[in-house]
Amino acid sequence: QVQLVESGGGLVQAGGSLRLSCAASGRSFSTYTMGWFRQAPGKEREFVAAIRWSGGSTYYADSAKGRFTISRDNAKNTVYLQMNSLKPEDTAVYYCAAASLYYSGSYPFPSQYDYWGQGTQVTVSS
Asked: In angstroms, how far is the first alpha carbon of the chain from the final one?
């Protein structure tokens, strides 16, 4: 069992930065692939980024490439999402998720994840 708690969301102006954190409980954190998703009002949950257990492989949605960076600290049971050059269209609730099974791809589908956090709101003003 893994419990995930996100933090770091807030209100920021366009062009600004935020760093989201996701603290995980459970002794198997280092074996999970971790992902970040987001969901805007009236829209489906969409993939943002993922990182494999070792941190050696990272994956990004096209909308996040070049602006967001996912990282993890297995010693602290924490995964991060550094978001730079934020745009109003980045406004959403951001969720972190943990996947226990191995997949060969980039983990872009919510169904691939076993555990979810409660989400943290990110609002980017223009």
From this structure: 40
